[in-house]
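Reopening closed ticket. The problem is back. First fold of the pair:
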Amino acid sequence: MDFCTGSILCDRGIGAKGKEINGVQLQYRGEITYWFFSGEPQTNMTISPDTRECLIEARGVSMQWGGRRILGDVDLSVARGEIVTLVGLNGSGKTTLVRIMVGLLRPDSGRIIRSAGLRIGFSPQSIQRDPTMPITVERFLTLGADAPRSRLNALLKEVGVDNLLDSRIANISGGELHRVVLARALLREPDLLVLDEPVAGVDISGQSDLYRLIADIRDRRGCGVLLVSHDLHMVMAATDLVVCLNHHVCCTGRPESVTQHPEFVSLFGKRVSEVLTVYTHHHNHRHNVSGETVPILAEESGD
């Protein structure tokens, strides 16, 4: 008798091992999950769904470019209230994957499943600034959108640069630009933030502050966050889940487990793995389905 356990809340359901049950795609309706036994629905049964509310999921995503494999059969999901970080060497397919997930590229095969009405705030890997173009931060924030100055000021205050609204984009620092781009991503009140190298070109102190800001935004807003980062040291202390990518998913899990995984060690080296172990973090809280902070009791933490 086949049945689906440990399912996640998405438009379409998958089994515990990511497989359809007897060729039947499970359907979710609000808080009611229908179980299928041998392909037949049991509509008189209700169960408590997993509290991990899936916002977006990549299933079997593959892509080639110029005859070269960029991604091969990649699976990835991000839930509300969690920070998932993609790590990997240059050219491993990280940026391609996030561009596929936000709809800017179409994969050769596989699919992207989004929760109904999902709003995504996207911060690209880099933004080229033309020093001859006199565009202000206010104009940049409202390109393709419309918002009153009071709303823009509130967003800039949230990201820590509330005095920049009338400044020229060309004149602000790299760290300030990252915060302005983050404010623009928040303009849509996103359920999911997708941030490609959000601290690139920022000094160590600034990187730490930005990662802390991203975590604070997650905590306040209850959104999911998908990060791409090269900075393994910083990111290991600022993420809930790590996905190691090398054209395929090498390993995935909590930072403390991924850094010791044989494929991670093979990719980054034993020395890096050993050093990163001290950067893994232990939360004294978890996040509920709404993204709210919930203290971990002593019996839960095993202390």
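Second fold of the pair, where the issue appears:
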Amino acid sequence: MGIGRVAAAQAAAEAFDDFGFDPSEPVDPFLAINNLGLELLFWDLGDLLGVIAPGAPSGVLINRLRPASVQRFTAAHEIGHWYLDQDHLALDTEETVEGLPKTQRERNAQTFASHFLMPLDLLHRVAEDHGVTKGSAINPVTAYSMARDMHVSYTAAVHQLGNCHFISDAERTALLRVSPQRSKIELTHGRKPSNPRGDVWVIGEQDDLEQLEVFRGDEIVFELAENPSTGYRWMQSELLAHLPPRMAPLPVAGGYPDWARRAKRLVHAVDEPMPRVADDFDGSVATPVTVGQSGVRRIGFNAAHPGSWKVELKHVRPFDPEKVLASRVLNTLVRPLPDEEERRRRLEQFRLEEFEESLDGA
């Protein structure tokens, strides 16, 4: 890394001191732009990912049609320009933000963005969470999962893993050949996610996660051991509320009977904040259960509406829903997409200013 890029990495560290951010947690670059006093707008910019425009006031434009993770990395790139070369217009494309920039100026902004959104404390913590050490093999799904946990794009994360010597240049090149969409489909076991721009979060049998922060459009998939031959199934609590009492058990190999399908339609008729998008049993997966047809039930939910929502699953016999063998509860904070979140910030700021004016006039 040349002198310019060392200075860029150091500038990113100094920015953390300026904002008081925790370098072990994901950073909100849009909040940083607001704190810098820059105008922030989200537009359809075509082939451009972002723009920083000097003036009075200076401002940042972000392409709202790109995935949220790309928008965040673009925002950090524009902050890099502000810190490193103020009063210069920058029109940033995929090449300058996530590719291999030709100019030192753009390479410096890219380095700043990488260290601003993926400081070493955060990178090492997430690597440890995924069992990754320097020199260990990293497959595309692991690289994608690390990017998701750091709230950055797959491409940006792979480059930073290479910059920080977790992977070799050859491994970086190989990982960049794989689309993140392929990893998402692998996480959903061959099913296309409900929102191709959203992230996929998988919660397994051994995960003790009780709270999760996601973004609107993300998908959450539970993978839970199940043995249908016992009559017990993992089911959404809201669905259980529509079941008639003491019905015969569901068939082991078949689907839901007519009454259950009607109940599912009733549930989906409501504009749910976390609609169920998948509910499938996979008998090909080995589980600790040895009696009968054991496997895994995968139940997926789409984070459709911002807010705080609870997802509750119960391991029950559908004909006897009061007898609960086990349950899982996940409290989910669904954040708006960047442009929606910025509108909410401005509205809250307006309300605060109106309130302060009302106090002054009292």
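Update: turned out to be a display glitch only; the data is intact. Residues 1 and 351 are 47 Å apart (CA to CA). The chain has three domains: 3-117, 121-178, 200-243+273-337. Please close again.
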